[in-house]
Design a protein that fits this description.
- Chains A, B: Residues 14-111 form the HTH hxlR-type domain.
- Chains A, B: This is Transcriptional regulator.
- Chains A, B: Pfam families: HxlR (PF01638).
- Chains A, B: Keywords: DNA-binding, Transcription, Transcription regulation.
- The structure is a homodimer of 111-residue chains.
- By secondary structure, chain A is an alpha+beta fold.
- Chain A has a single domain (2-108), classed as Winged helix-like DNA-binding domain superfamily/Winged helix DNA-binding domain (Arc Repressor Mutant, subunit A, Orthogonal Bundle).
- Helix content of chain A is 57%, strand content 13%.
- The first copy, chain A, is built from six helices and three strands; from the N terminus they run H-H-H-E-H-H-E-E-H.
- Chain A has a three-stranded antiparallel beta sheet.
- In chain A, a hairpin with a 5-residue loop joins strand 2 (71-76) and strand 3.
- The longest helix of chain A has 20 residues, at 89-108.
- The two termini of chain A are 32 Å apart.
- Chain A binds a DNA duplex (20 and 20 nucleotides) through helix 5.
DNA sequence: CCGTATCCTTGCCGATACTG
DNA sequence: CAGTATCGGCAAGGATACGG
């Protein structure tokens, strides 16, 4: 899988590069983790978990995660508005793989 | 593993965050991939594989990868100088895990 | 050949104010 | 409550010149 990336295409076209692009940035992984832990979470709830994130950044990240189909956004047409975010099946399957990175990190942390 | 990160600590302390910090940036993964493929590679050789990378960025990245003990730098005391870079065992073990991300990406790429 | 030094550009992210 | 709009800071990365 990995070993053919150089001959056949450039790095941008690899599955690895694609996967990383889904979770790049400072907060996406933490958002996914929160959704994994709490399952269904509202906007301001997420803001409290992700201490110090700005409205703009959270909003941007949620939109990207949704368009990458890792999370599901469910909007209730009411006043005041209510929106719930949760992991999609696709998002859950990604988290399973990322857990392996977590385990490697715990085992191999230096110092 | 993942599920306890919120209660026990913040995201910065997780193994996952640590692992990602090792390969963050635009080029580190590509460098590791090159070393996996070609095993022993010299500085200017890497520069040719990583089209458009600047001397400074390549130099910085190699130093960080070395201090994180993912790669090995071997210098030959001669003129003109000769330096060879290769994956450490630790680097190889990380690549094995990253391959899983690559596979997930290939399977789940949209469009 | 293998870098370092310097300056510059760019894109992510934060802060704040405002809206349906 | 759940965002959007606008402005601005800051650090990663790029371009180029130079050094051992």
């Amino acid at each position: 899988m990995i070993k053919n990336f150089i001959e056949n295409a450039n790095f941008e076209d690899t599955g690895f590069s694609y996967t990383l692009s889904l979770i790049s940035g400072k907060y996406k992984m933490v958002i996914l983790y929160c959704l994994m832990e709490y399952e269904v979470v509202r906007f301001n709830e997420l803001k409290r978990y992700l201490k110090n994130i700005s409205d703009k950044t959270l909003s941007t990240n949620l939109k990207e995660l949704e368009s990458d189909r890792l999370i599901i956004r469910r909007e209730y047409p009411q006043i005041p508005p209510k929106v719930e975010y949760s992991l999609s099946d696709r998002g859950k399957s990604l988290m399973a793989v990322l857990d392996q990175l977590c385990i490697w990190g715990e085992k191999n942390k230096l110092g």
